[in-house]
Amino acid sequence: MSFPRGTRAMHVGLLERPLRPAAAGLTLETDFVAGDRIALERVDCLLCGGRDAEPLIAAGDHLTGLGGEFSVVRCPRCTLAWTNPRPTADCIHLFYPPDYRPWDMREERPGWRGGFRQLVEQAALVRDYGYPEGQGSRVGGGERIEDGGSRMEVRHGGHPPSSILHPPSSTRDARRFLLAALARLWLRRRRQRLNWIPFQPPGRLLDFGCGRGDFLETMRRYGWNVEGLDLSPLVAGYVEGRTGIRIHAGTLPHPDVPPNSFDAVTMWNALEHVHHPREVVAAARRALRPGGLLVVGVPNIDSWAFRRFGRWWWQLELPRHLVHFTPATLCRLLVSEGFAIDAVEHVGRPGTIRKSARRALAAGEPSRDLRRLLRKYPAQRIADRTERAGEADFLRVIARRPYGTVRSAPAPA
Predict the structure, then answer these.
(1) b/e map of 8-41 (b: 16 or more CB within 10 Å)?
(2) Is it true that the peptide bond before 253 is cis, omega within 30 degrees of 0?
(3) Torsion sign over Cα 313, 315, 321, 325
(4) Hey, is 83 helix, strand or coil?
């Protein structure tokens, strides 16, 4: 049996486990369940190929209740954590029910508040991140921030050099100046700025694991020429028909994603779902032009929330999450595939803290502080504190395909 590049002599042992719903009355459509058995495989470390592994945690699937408990192990050599054994690629679809939230196609209207947010957000992106001024325009409306003519600077924490010192020169500039200043005050938390990535001319963007296409529509509105990629052919077809955006069905590498064709590749809550993360990252690098950006957002298993909630942590998501990253292991993976790291950001999410607390309480875990964390403001304070301490439960890493051929350097510890 042969394996894709980067898995390094993967040892596989197939197991079988009956489909066992945790709660009575769970029903699945007949075209969703392919059979009555789940095939599991044991794999070596997906980063360094090591065969040793230490048990980290075990939990069931809170979404479908299928398959009993799944284990997460950690490599003692490189510290990567992964689900092991894991469902095979042929049966992982059993754990993605038709009502899986990222594939929920119910349209949500933004309302006046959402429309005003788009207005001020676009002003900030034009002024500070080099975005084009109008939809579809390819003429940059903001200043370019360059390093040696080849590399845009992104500061740790995601805040670009401020343009607040550049006075407006016209009525239009003054309006943009004020709206951008309002955006910086109103959208001050990192989770509100996840979409704020530097514009890369000419502006072709591929969103890997695009789901229902909300991010693609937003970035198209802000001037990117967008395409999407999703594992579900049904979702891909629906989103393309609804939005007119080209959506490819499948994963990376993909025959319709040629080399050197994109200026940015984004992966929001996607890389942790793939069976072969090194192969996906390597394919993303080939798809990017030199100087292009890879933006990866994943849960952080080296977080306060994971240590506090353990098996009840909302973002554990077994067995759909096959790889469980920390800042060090994610950077190590990207650097090993030829990327240079521009920024590493911790993003606090009070919503997932509240959901984790609710799940732990429902499971019967007694704790007064859990009830406190059900409330909005205590959860927000914890999220802000973990963000400042570098132990928030979500990571955003911006990496760049370097110009020319560079030798991989060690990733940050």
Answers:
(1) eebeeeeeebebeeeeeeeeeeeeeeeeeebbbb
(2) yes
(3) negative
(4) strand
Instruction: Judge contact between 161 and 155, C-beta under 8 A.
Output: yes
Q: Which of 22, 77, 17 is nearest to 47 (CA)?
A: 77
Q: Minimal CA–CA distance to 397: which of 336, 352, 332?
A: 332
What is the domain partition of the chain in residue ranges?
14-103
State how far the Cα of 178 lies from the Cα of 70, in Å rounded to an integer: 51
Q: For residue 328, how many C-alpha atoms fall within 13 Å in the half-sphere facing its CB? A: 9
Of 171, 174, 176, 168, the C-alpha closest to 131 is 176
Other C-beta atoms lying within 10 Å of the C-beta of residue 246? 16
Cβ–Cβ < 8 Å for 344, 395: yes
pLDDT digits (tens, 9 = 90+) for 182-200: 656 656 566 666 688 999 9
Helix 327-336 / helix 277-287 crossing angle, nearest 10 deg = 60
What is the token pair recorded at 255? Answer: 């025959």
Provide the 10 A C-beta neighbour count for residue 103. Answer: 18
Confidence of residue 53 (pLDDT cuts 50, 70, 90): very high
Contact 346, 300 (CB under 8 A): yes
- Report the C-alpha gap between 361 and 277 in whole angstroms: 34
Q: Please tell me the distance from the alpha carbon of residue 359 to that of residue 47, in angstroms, as a whole number.
A: 31
Q: Which amino acid is at 154?
A: V
Distance CA 218, CA 101 (A): 19
Given a contact cutoff of 8 angstroms between Cβ atoms, the answer to whether 12 and 1 are in contact is yes
Q: How far apart are CA 86 and CA 91, in angstroms?
A: 10
Question: How far apart (Å, rounded) are the C-alpha atoms in residues 281 and 265?
Answer: 10
Q: pLDDT tens for residues 287-321?
A: 999 999 999 999 999 999 999 999 999 999 999 99
pTM of the full predicted structure? 0.80
> For residue 223, what is the DSSP state?
T
Name the strands in the sheet holding 86-87, side by side, starting at the edge strand that comes first in the sequence. 14-18, 37-41, 86-87
